[in-house]
Write a structure and sequence with these properties.
The structure is a homodimer. The first copy, chain A, is α/β, with parallel strands linked by helices. Chain A folds into 3 domains: 3-73, Up-down Bundle (dopa decarboxylase, N-terminal domain), CATH 1.20.1340.10; 100-346, Aspartate Aminotransferase, domain 2; 361-466, Alpha-Beta Complex (Aspartate Aminotransferase, domain 1), CATH 3.90.1150. In chain A, 42% of the residues lie in helices and 12% in strands. Chain A is built from 14 helices and 11 strands. Chain A has helices spanning 3-23, 53-64, 86-98, 109-126, 146-160, 180-188, 209-221, 244-252, 291-294, 309-316, 326-330, 349-384, 407-420, 447-466, and strands at 139-143, 170-175, 196-199, 225-232, 257-261, 286-289, 302-306, 388-390, 398-403, 426-430, 433-439. In chain A, the strands form 2 sheets. In chain A, strands 1-7-6-5-4-2-3 form a 7-stranded mixed beta sheet, sandwiched between helices. Chain A has a 4-stranded antiparallel beta sheet with strand order 8-9-11-10. In chain A, helix 7 runs parallel beside helix 8 and helix 13 (407-420) packs across helix 14 (447-466). In chain A, 62% of the residues are buried. The mean pLDDT of chain A is 96. At the A-B interface, helix 1, helix 2, helix 3, helix 4 and helix 5 of A face helix 1, helix 2, helix 3, helix 4 and helix 5 of B.
Chain lengths: 471, 471
């Protein structure tokens, strides 16, 4: 593709995306295709000869769009948001256009230095502890996801505790409400299911730090090595906040590494009034949160911070001859390949930099505050409703609620809403009860969308109740 | 950013990239900044208020570009190429614009189905064994890198062999010339250094399959469990091809999983005359190669294929309540989150689809053939030169060569060339000797660039020899 052909095709794609931004709310939010339907519209073999770009773009509409679930829709309330703002899309585009590899400082110094710099900005922006800044012993790096951040933290902790030589005696801890990435990470790192204890939670689904202390003490007494605690600042299930300071105090008596996953809620800290999400972080070893969820930066962009970067590098560094270079050997630079699982890496700092500059600190605060206010309003409607109850506190922008009619009714409400195409929400199970999750954080979502969603939920619930005289 | 603002800013970014495509060869290939120089041009704090997009784009030129090492330059001959073609850049842009999460089929069916379909196309395009197609027990998936592909293969093998319960008795094998990702993957998976044997190589730096068989037999006799062999089809150091068929035969007697890393050279198989790169793949458990290296698709895009997808899913699947959905429970769909380390995933199949359609099979063959022909010509110049010798065979597009003057001279040649900004190449060590690597695979590279590089190499070598009377 020549530069001029790229100019032409690029203009068409930019226009396609701009139209999509205008129309994302017009599609059924949850794709309605059946399994195999997308593939059925694709030829069985790759084309032998080049095809015009216009044909490819036409197939975006014909083949791909029916199979898209619209995460950018203003009516997307499922899981957690995955925002792709204009500036972040353009940062991603520039990253692809430059096509540099950031595995070593030398392979593109700007890719490394802008990342270090922007991660230091994030420390200031979110009011994180100084220990996570790059001017001390710590530092930040962009990971693809909170799953990978958890894994590298776990690996650093494992090596610090003695590594493979003591692997069978290691014990890790998390809460029964933690994200599945903890279980997956532990398994990847070679721990058996018995080596990861799921500590119980209190009435608000936050980890019971006293119970944690008891099980860690018992394990230590049994000759085991408590080495790692994964806490959560805002669980996926119900947005519960583990008592990080208490957990850190308990873990400190065992020399265990504490990692905090603030994937969703960490972004709230851009607004000073929500900095309770950072409670206790000044005492933990590592922390992450995802601008690709609630800070308007398209996936993938997880900000991972570590208090002792050497522990991370010790766990992940291997230097073959073909990667040796003067800058690395000088010790004056960061080689981010030693801070992550893969070797190669994209220039992901660009999109985060673009977002920070486009919105500014006050712009980011504005959007986060708006989402929290809408969520609080929604929670108020739930509380005032005779049909529904809140199932958990609403500290930020996730409302956990359920219909009084029981699991089958809640599942029916969820399915009917999602099949309507008018909105998309998902569920969890709290205390054995199916619970609806209303997650409000898409950039396009306005008050009208939240209000309409609540009206639809009420109407669907009443229609189901109407067909069942016991409700 | 409104859709109209996006139209305007998008047009500017497209123009910026088109100009970069035109001018990539005008920059010093290897960035000349000193450590800290990029950061010194950035303000210490994030901006409080929004900044105009024009200012951000101006800083791309002012701050970022001096710190870029130009992987898209026609004079980039270092490491391996990382091609970003026009269609792939636009596929990445569309992926960012749609902003969907492909973790589950249900979260965007097209994201999963297009990926499965395009990976099946790759099986046909590259003449890979049918066992890697999705219509049998196997299938393909896009990973971020060959490092991650190696890791998931190793984890599947580990679980198939008994998992954490037998971890200390497991033994893995690779060659002493394998990529560092094998050592890193084994460490991540909880194996000690002793649990990964580096098997010796023959004169062409390919794994000695007989030696492999002997060490596997000895380990088995010692009560250990040989469970995994990582072979390479085209090593990073010298482009050596391990004897995969022989390795697979040896491994089969132990029931060990064989993974083949064809990261760089696998793309050659688009041309039927280069399908020796696939030798033996019909007997292995998993295989990967990187379109983000030599198939004109911007990073990240590693195609990973597995013969028994259930083994992979068994190793990596964890299903929490909040991810349960009807499509998953029907068993009729693929959820790619169970095929990889992270949970979230971008719509990476789009860029590969765009590349395949833009170039067509014949277009891809054309470029690969051209790079191989240029490399063969370069190797001929080395052979004909009194100053230089070939250090290894040149099966495809990597020329390993060295000056007869010894390590210090070769290092000086490399440094002087790289500091000149006129080209960029890197080195390896073969049989204890510093060896220069000329890797020819950037899309922009034409015969004139290769010819000029060789002239520069000769001139620099002569000038160094001139300053040293012993040469």
């Amino acid at each position: 593709m020549t530069p001029d052909e790229f100019r032409q095709a690029g203009a068409e794609v930019v226009e396609w995306i701009a139209r999509y931004m205008e129309q994302a709310g017009d599609y059924p939010v949850l794709s309605t295709v059946d399994p195999g339907e997308v593939r059925a519209n694709l030829p069985p073999s790759p084309p032998r000869w080049p095809e015009p770009f216009a044909d490819v773009l036409a197939d975006m509409d014909r083949v791909v769009m029916p199979g898209i679930t619209h995460w950018q829709s203003p009516d997307f309330f499922a899981f957690f948001p995955a925002n792709a703002s204009g500036p972040s899309i353009l940062g991603e585009l520039l990253s692809a256009g430059l096509g540099v590899q950031g595995m070593l400082w030398a392979t593109s110094p700007a890719c490394t230095e802008l990342e270090t710099h922007v991660l230091d900005w994030m420390v200031e922006l979110c009011g994180l502890p100084d220990r996570f800044g790059s001017d001390g012993a710590g530092g930040g790096v962009i990971q693809d996801s909170a799953s990978s951040a958890l894994l590298v933290a776990l690996l650093a902790a494992r090596e610090r505790a003695g590594g493979a030589a003591v692997l069978g005696r290691l014990r890790a801890y998390t809460s029964s409400h933690a994200h599945s990435s903890v279980e997956k990470g532990a398994r990847i790192a070679g721990l058996s299911a018995e080596q990861l204890t799921m500590v119980g939670v209190g009435p608000d689904y936050a980890m019971d730090a006293t119970a944690l202390g008891m099980v860690m003490d018992a394990d230590r007494a049994a000759g085991l090595i408590p080495f790692f605690v994964a806490a959560t600042a805002g669980t996926t299930s119900s947005n519960a906040f583990d008592p990080v300071a208490d957990i850190a105090a308990v873990a400190a008596t065992h020399g265990a590494w504490v990692h905090v996953d603030g994937a969703m809620s960490g972004s709230a800290a851009v607004a000073p009034e929500f900095r309770f999400v950072n409670d206790g972080l000044d005492r933990v070893d590592s922390y992450c949160f995802n601008p690709h969820k609630w800070l308007f930066t398209n996936f993938d962009c997880d900000c991972f911070f570590v208090a002792d970067r050497q522990a991370l590098i010790d766990a992940l560094s291997i230097l073959p001859e073909y990667l040796r270079n003067r800058a690395t050997e000088s010790g004056a630079v960061i080689d981010y390949r030693d801070w992550q699982i893969p070797l190669g890496r994209r220039f992901r700092a660009l999109k985060l930099w673009f977002v920070l500059r486009h919105y500014g600190v006050e712009g980011l605060r504005h959007h986060v505050r708006e989402h929290v206010a809408l969520s609080q309003e929604f929670a108020g409607w739930v509380e005032a409703s005779p049909q529904f109850v809140l199932a958990a506190p609403t500290p930020l922008n996730l409302v956990s609620f359920r219909h009084r009619g029981g699991d089958a009714v809640n599942e029916a409400i969820r399915d009917r809403l999602n099949e309507s195409g008018e909105l998309y929400l998902t569920h969890t199970v709290l205390d054995g009860h199916v619970t609806l999750r209303m997650s409000i954080g898409a950039l396009a979502t306005q008050r009208e969308h939240v209000e309409r969603a609540w009206r639809r939920i009420e109407v669907v619930a009443r229609s189901l109740a109407g067909s069942d005289p016991t409700l």
